[in-house]
Amino acid sequence: MSETELIDISNRQLPIEINKIILTDAFEHARALSSRLIAIVIGTKPDFYKQAPLIREAIDSDIPVIVIDTGQHFDDLVGFGKKEFSINDHVACSLKIRGDLVEKASDLLIKFAKFGRLCKKQFPSVNVVPIVHGDTLVAGVAPLAWAFGLGQKVAQNEAGLRSMAPVAIKDLRINSEPSHQDIESFADHQFNGKWFLAREEPYPEQIDTWICSAGTQYFFAPTELNKNNLIREGYPEDSIHVVGNSIVDAINLKRREKPQQSIFDLYPRAEIGDWIRVDIHRRENLTKVRFSAIINGITDLVKLGYKILFVKLNATQYALDAYRFSTELDKLADLYPDNFIQTPLWKEYGHVVEFLDSGHCWAELTDSGSMQEELMYFPNIFPLTVRLNTDRPETIFEAKGNILVPPINRVWITQFVKSARSERLGAVVKNKRPMYGQPGQVSKNIVKIIKDHIIKEEEDNNPWLHHRLNLWKDYDNLEYL
Fold it and tell me: 309-359 pLDDT, tens per residue?
């Protein structure tokens, strides 16, 4: 019997798909302007609508630009944002990554570097600067690929996201049943108490954003807090630009470009009464204790007469099936048809904006990072963030326009909702202020920085300290890179 065994671990990678016309035209454009080429990178649904305004603004400003699509969201539901925001017309490369988390990461690492080297070989006189976004897998892996494959760094839109939690969270106990006074006290601690760094969650996004920073040269930070996070970690202050968050531009676009079919044509009952929209999908919230607390809390709220519109993402549905909640929710929908609606993921971002603007949604029970930003721009909606920490803590202790709802047990969920319309907690909605820039201006801010600091050839995105210290400049990276 042999002591060794050979195991095939290949993940059957799909080939990279390149649009030669888009790619060649963009490089010729850059060559004519003696500038760099900007490559805006998209991968997941948030990338589509947060990067789309930047793509539009770059094109309108005559900046040589292409889109690199990881191709991981390829179906009509999850990938619809590329069509909704007219991104497909600018995709020069689809990496077509597939698989689970580690398979997609390894696929992306290899393909992103390969594409960069191909561009370097075919168009050696033009340097490419990728702009990744946020804290997704793409943001974590693409900068590694660029640094390892080309010896260069990238730019990051939505840089410096670091999770924090209120110190008061340490005093909570799983079997506690808070009163209305306990809820108000915990809220006060969030608004006015001390906070600490809590890097464990969201997973893997907090890992991705930390890795991304290490491979980034140009940081586009939404707020001063994000900038201070990066400075504390040792990144050069002159590379960090506070620009706001491009989500506000996406909201602005969708308020002007209405969906062809209304969300109320799809779900007519949602136009009757005041609803709480529920969007739960984070990996940490799909663990058994948290997910059970959330689903049981929602069930209790429906039975108490609250109207719940429950949006089921793929991960949500998986957890519902795994913990055998699906049948229970189906029965709830049958028993309380006027109070409980289940829907699949809404494929159009325009539908989200339409519903939040409609006056038929008074609260959002969510674990989304982006929704915490977005809800700052919907003045009559109460953001209830179902998490133990948040990577947008500024929405709480600075804006005082958001609140953490810890998914410890069902009572915490129901009590927070019941208390949300009290006089004291109602101030969250009244005090809420936009803090991520003026709609229509954020992408303009970023593009101005690109023009002033990035597309010039005398600027560099190499990793060497002798460049940063202005000792000398050289660009002849050896082939081993």
Answer: 999 999 999 999 999 999 999 999 999 999 999 999 999 999 999 999 999
437: Cβ contacts below 8 Å, ≥ 6 apart: 222, 243, 244, 245, 248, 445
Residue that the structure tokens 């948040």 belong to: 390
Q: Where are the alpha helices (DSSP H) in 287-422?
A: 288-303, 314-322, 326-335, 349-357, 369-374, 394-397, 410-419
Q: How confident is the model over 407-432, as pLDDT tens digits? A: 999 999 999 999 998 888 887 877 78
Residue 321 half-sphere exposure toward CB, CA atoms < 13 A: 7
Q: Return the percent helix, strand and coil in the chain, to nearest 5.
A: 45, 15, 40
Report residue 50 as tokens. 């947060």
Q: Which residues contact 448 (CB under 8 A, 6 or more apart)?
A: none
> Who contacts 230 (Cβ-Cβ below 8 Å, separation ≥6)?
159, 160, 213, 219, 221, 240
Residue 316's SS3 state is: helix
C-beta neighbour count of 133 within 10 angstroms: 27
Output the CA torsion sign for 413, 419, 424, 425: positive
Which two three-digit tokens encode residue 322?
A: 């795994």
* Alpha carbons 84 and 350: distance in angstroms, whole number: 8
The pTM score is 0.93
- Residue labelled with tokens 């663990």: 287
Q: Residue 3, class by beta-carbon neighbours within 10 Å (0-12 exposed, 13-18 middle, 19+ buried)?
A: exposed
Nearest CA-CA partner of 161 in 199, 131, 130: 199
**The token pair that represents 109 in the structure block:** 């690492």
